[in-house]
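Appendix B, record 7
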Amino acid sequence: MALQPESNKKAQFVIAAFIAAQIFIVFVVWIVFFGPSEREDRIKAALALAKAADLENAITSYHNDYKALPPDNSALLQASKTGKPYFTSFEERGDPSYKMVAANGVITLIFSPSQSAIGGKSLVLTPRISDGKFNWSCDASALEARYRPSQCGGQ
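Structure tokens (predicted):
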């Protein structure tokens, strides 16, 4: 095998270094602009909203039994007319990223401060009752539009 001239080895090294730098730059740009935090925050907000559906059902059942909205979380933990509690747990089912609060029928999902862009912010679900039927409206104005679930006017 013939030895390569010194200038040829330097040119190959420069090309390899240039390619490695380009790959590094693309990787950094990807993380900065398309990083996991924005996606994860949108997913967290959507999952919290989906889990609130059980609480919406509990509030609807409570209203059907008492013809009033439950005043707080503890009212929903009481036994219903069927003997089962309306709602079994406000412990977020192992997910510490948000807290659910029900007051006078209004559900507030408060995201823990450790959540990056949505930390300390909330989604509010308000029942509208018409002819005995519930319609839930979502106020997510505390969250930037890009983090809001589609049901709450998100992108």
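Remarks on this record: The mean pLDDT is 82. The two ends are 61 Å apart (CA to CA).
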